[in-house]
Design brief:
The structure is a single chain. This protein is α/β, with parallel strands linked by helices. It has a seven-stranded parallel β-sheet with strand order 3-2-1-4-5-6-7, with helices on both faces. Helix 3 packs parallel to helix 4. The longest helix has 22 residues. It is globular, with a radius of gyration of 17 Å. The model has no long low-confidence stretch (mean pLDDT 93).
C-alpha cells in the first residue's frame, strides 16, 4: 500500500494534490477541519492548531503507515492573515505559527519515524518563503520558518532513505488567494499580470510538481519555484 498524507486537502492545491495521488493508486488522507469532496479520499477531522486533534488523527495515520511500502507527507495547509509589523498582535502571530509551523513539527515527530524508505516529506511554501511584501507579516514569518524546517529536515534525515523539498507556488487560483485579495477582479488581473504568462497558476499545475517531487529524491533539500516566471519588484 502507498500512502499520501496531505494537510488542507479540502480545497485548492491540497484537493488537486489529493486527486493526483489518488490517480496513482495511493491511499490518500486529508487532515483538515473540512471534508475533501473527492471520492476515495479519507478525511480525518483535524484542527491543526490543536495538539490534541493532531494526536488523535495521527493514531489513525500510524496504523496506515505500519503496512505501507511508500509514503508522502505533504505540509500544505496554511493560515494567512492581513497584518503588518506594526499591528500584528502576538496572540494573532501565535495562531498563525501554530497552524503553519508548530503543526508541521508535530506531524513530523509523529510520522517521520514510521515512514519507509522511498518516502518524502514535502513542504508547500510560497514566493513569500524567500521574500516579503507589505500586509502579510505573520504569513511571511511562518513561510520563512517552514523553509528553515525543510532545510533542517533534509540534514537530519540523511541516510534514512527519505527526502524532502519545498515547493513554492506563485499566485495560484485558490480560495485562500481570492479571499486575501478580496475577490476584486481588478486586483486579481493585476496579480495575474505579475508573471510572464499573464495568468494565475492552476492548482493542478502545482499538484503535478508535488507528485514529481515525491518521485524524484535527487531534489532532496531543494526549493522548487513554481511561479511562471514572476516579475521581481
Amino acid at each position: 500500500m502507498k500512502v499520501a498524507i496531505i494537510t488542507g486537502a479540502s480545497v485548492g492545491i491540497g484537493s488537486s494534490t489529493a486527486q493526483t495521488f489518488l490517480n496513482e493508486g495511493f491511499t490518500v488522507f486529508n487532515l483538515a477541519r473540512r471534508q475533501c469532496a473527492i471520492d476515495g479520499v479519507t478525511s480525518l477531522s483535524c484542527d491543526l492548531s490543536s495538539q490534541t486533534s493532531i494526536d488523535t488523527a495521527c493514531d489513525t495515520l500510524k496504523k496506515a503507515l505500519t503496512d505501507c511500502s511508500e509514503a508522502t507527507l505533504i505540509h500544505n495547509a496554511s493560515q494567512m492573515k492581513k497584518d503588518s509589523a506594526v499591528d500584528c498582535r502576538s496572540d494573532s502571530l501565535n495562531q498563525v505559527m501554530a497552524t503553519n509551523v508548530i503543526a508541521v513539527n508535530s506531524l513530523n515527530q509523529h510520522l517521520l519515524p514510521l515512514m519507509p524508505t522511498s518516502s518524502s516529506v514535502l513542504y508547500i511554501g510560497s514566493t513569500l518563503s524567500e521574500k516579503a511584501v507589505p500586509g502579510s507579516f505573520s504569513y511571511v514569518i511562518s513561510k520563512h520558518a517552514q523553509l528553515g524546517m525543510m532545510r533542517a529536515t533534509c540534514q537530519d534525515l540523511m541516510g534514512s532513505g527519505l527526502h524532502t523539498a519545498m515547493i513554492c507556488p506563485g499566485f495560484t487560483d485558490t480560495e485562500m488567494l481570492r479571499t486575501h485579495l478580496g475577490s476584486d477582479p481588478d486586483i486579481e488581473a493585476g496579480v495575474a499580470a505579475m508573471n510572464s504568462f499573464n495568468r494565475l497558476i492552476e492548482p493542478e499545475e502545482i499538484a503535478e510538481l508535488i507528485r514529481w517531487a515525491h518521485h524524484n529524491p535527487v531534489i532532496n533539500g531543494a526549493v522548487l519555484h513554481a511561479n511562471l516566471g514572476q516579475k521581481e519588484n
